[in-house]
Amino acid sequence: MVDYIVNENGVEREATETEKADIIARNKAWEDDKPNRQLSQIREIRNQKLQETDWLVISEKITDAEKTWRENLRKIPQDYTTEEQYDLLLARDEQGNLTHSIWSKP
User: Fold this and answer.
1) In the chain, is it the N or the C terminus that has fewer CB atoms within a 10 Å radius of its CB?
2) Nearest to 100 by CA among 62, 80, 81
């Protein structure tokens, strides 16, 4: 059984049954909300990538490949809908670079 420790005024003690239930409920709510947090992070990355290339559209120097890439970025929320897909979109290499091919500008 997991011990639940509460820090109250700098003193650690074992949680009461009510506190344990509250901790478990908060942890479950946090875990259940993981896909929403991931999608929010994905949207931030996507929006940054789009913003970084907006000048191509404005200057009309955008290639067909770049247009397709930008369209694919915009379609991420409809094309990627599961937690497993979110994990793949957010995967990073040892240097912290996103590894999914959708993030790579042509």
Assistant:
1) N
2) 80
Which letter does DSSP use for residue 16 in this model?
Answer: P
pTM of the model: 0.73
| pLDDT band per the 50, 70, 90 thresholds, residue 82 | very high
With a CB cutoff of 8 Å and minimum separation 6, the contacts of 83 are 34, 35, 38
Domain boundaries, the chain: 1-32, 34-103
Beta strands in 1-106, from DSSP E residues, in sequence order: 5-8, 11-14
| Cβ proximity of 49 and 2 under 8 Å | no
How far is C-alpha 2 from the chain's CA centre?
29
